[in-house]
Design a protein that fits this description.
The chain is mostly beta strands. 13% of the residues lie in helices and 43% in strands. It has helices at 78-90, 145-151; strands spanning 7-11, 14-17, 25-28, 31-38, 42-50, 54-61, 95-99, 104-117, 126-134. The longest helix is centred in the middle third of the chain and has 13 residues, at 78-90.
Length: 152
């Protein structure tokens, strides 16, 4: 039995699974590199830190369950789905993004959520695109008194 990929967003105790998987999704995984010019040598590259991953995909929110394209039958009204996503985004706190079978399970923020109401011939359906940016928990290191003393 083939396991279907599932796209989940979780905020606290609330869970949302995309009702229709995107036909494709994109993961950008940047890495910082500094290029400097060295006399008599030319350009050299210096590796920096890994950038924040970004996830982008498009799908649609059906008004009713249809087994030909829905991955589950727990369909919520598209406008409620939008309200939940926008509410989470507006909280300005990270959301857990998980894609089963793709080894993606990370905290993200929602910098962009765009939707287009009901295309002709599909009343009640809403198409959307979303961009998710990895959230890295800031770690603030405390200086010890010996470290401060030695710098003086």
């Amino acid at each position: 039995m083939k396991v279907k990929m599932q796209f989940w967003l979780r905020y606290g105790s609330e869970n949302l699974q995309l009702p229709v998987n995107p036909s494709s999704f994109e993961v950008a995984s940047p890495y910082g590199i500094e290029v400097i010019e060295v006399d008599n040598l030319g350009e050299i590259t210096i590796p920096k830190n890994r950038g924040l991953q970004e996830f982008r995909f498009e799908s649609f929110l059906p008004e009713k369950y249809d087994p030909t394209y829905c991955v589950h039958n727990r369909i919520i009204p598209p406008n409620d789905f939008i309200e939940i996503i926008e509410g989470w985004r507006d909280e300005e706190k990270p959301v857990r993004f998980t894609v089963t079978t793709a080894n993606i399970n990370t905290l993200v923020l929602i910098p962009e959520f765009t939707y287009r109401p009901s295309p002709p011939g599909s009343p009640g359906e809403i198409q959307f695109s979303i961009s998710l940016k990895e959230y890295r928990v800031p770690v603030i290191k405390k200086l010890t008194s010996t470290a401060v003393s030695s710098k003086k």
